[in-house]
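Justification of resources, computational component.

The compute hours requested in this renewal are based largely on the per-chain cost of generating structure records like the one below. Each record pairs the submitted sequence with a full structure-token output. That output is archived, and it is also reused by downstream analysis tasks.
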Amino acid sequence: MVGFDEDDLRALAGARSFERGLGYLDAVSGLEVGEGSVTAVVHGTGVYEVELTLGAEEGISGWCDCPYGQEANFCKHCVAVGLTVLRRAKTIPHQRAAARARVSGLEAWLSALSRDELLALVREQVAEDRELRRRLELRAATDRSDLGTVRDRIIALIDPRPFARYGYIEYSDASGYARQVAEAVSALRALTADGQAAQAVGPAEEAIRVLGEAYGEIDDSDGAVGEAAAAVAEAHLEACRAACPDPARLAEWLVGTVLDDSGDVTDLDPLDYADSLGPSGLARMRQLASEALRRRPSGWAERYLMERLVKAEGDVDALVALHAQDLDPSGATHLLIAEELETAGRADEALAWAERGLRDCAAETYIDGRLVEHVCVRYAKMGRAADAVTVRRDRFRVERSLAAYRQLRSAAQAADCWESERAAALAVLSEGARRERGGRYGGPVLIDALLDDGDLDAAWREAADRADDRQWERLADLSREIRPAEALGVYLRLVERSKEPTGDRAYEHLAGLLLAARDCHRALGTEGAFTVYLDGLRTELRRRRKLMSILDRHGL
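The structure output for this chain reads:
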């Protein structure tokens, strides 16, 4: 078992890359199977290295050093290797066993070497592999507590400039930079483990600063640099917990880092440092956060920092006051306050804030749907179904959307008053529909509401000159069995409008319309007319080979 099939490859690569990968099966060579991966070489316009990773839970993923693959795409070369693996599935267990045997043999050989032979081998590799030499130099300096050298090596490892060939780090170079940052993390943690935590704090802070400044110029599509940066932050936290640095200085550094626009990459949470800060450090942080918020009341980072500190103190009233200083016009902040009060067991105050949000935002076209839902759920629990209907009605009259119509319907049905509410709601939508003219896109919400209710007779009456293509198709789909003649007219009109677009998706849609038209002809007993129509259409569009193959596949 290889853990994937052709459908998985097609889904990852897309139809075009999958089809192109079929043409590269003879170009795959050097296939090597490991425990959880497969590597191979594919000869195309260049010679490309491919690695497929096979995870039990994650499924298959692929990497290729071709230009398209370096943009994090599952390319045609990955497809070719994947298909090769599937065609050699019976031999995979034997290849995997052979790989284990090779590893075992290598370990046995190394174990049999003398100390001098091992040293000679390591020296040979160090002379040829610059990255290995740097890693070993750092380990050696750490072991002999050469703190100056260790610090210099850590700073060098996090320097992005050697990887930024064009002023930024491309996707193909990001993983190499991430590996170097990971080496720096190992060195920082080694210092902490060896009782030199105080010496790790400074280099870790420098690493966080450099990463924050550089991250905006890195194509970190795989997230490798972000993960390494998070590990740097964890190493800094570990060092601070072990070293117990000056609380005031640590508080000042944390506030400065959180408020720095370039500090997002490490996602530091100042409260993780509570034990290291102690009461005096937390007080200093609160003072600095207050000063920053006064200078920039609308600053997102300033508000986030103050919110975290106030919340940690458990002062709900102070937290409410903080949020109340900057109420979002969508009602999101009112909801946030309501949730905090409800968590604190102050349900009446929570509902009052949520209701205030509805009043404050009543005229807004957009309001946070979670706030409306919050209030309606509370009303339902209190047996206030009529009040929930009022809230939904008010929002519907402002939004006039299908979603708002559905929510009003649900609330009114629960209150057993949908018949009267529906008549009023449709009147509101009819007024809007009179001002709208249909077209290819953007038909009136009234038609969507009637379709959603299953009121097909009314939908047919309103559709003329108003419905868009999507609504016409939906109406025809729902009416195909009871009004085949009318539905057929819709499908044929949509087929004519769908002949111009190209591409797999457009062709599949066109095929679907033709299948629906065929069903209508069958219901009407006019299959011969459909055959004549289809023959004419295929003749007209015969140059579109992909369309012809799709029609063939659907039996058209």
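Residues 171-193 form the longest helix (23 residues). Strands lie at 28-33, 37-43, 47-55, 59-64.
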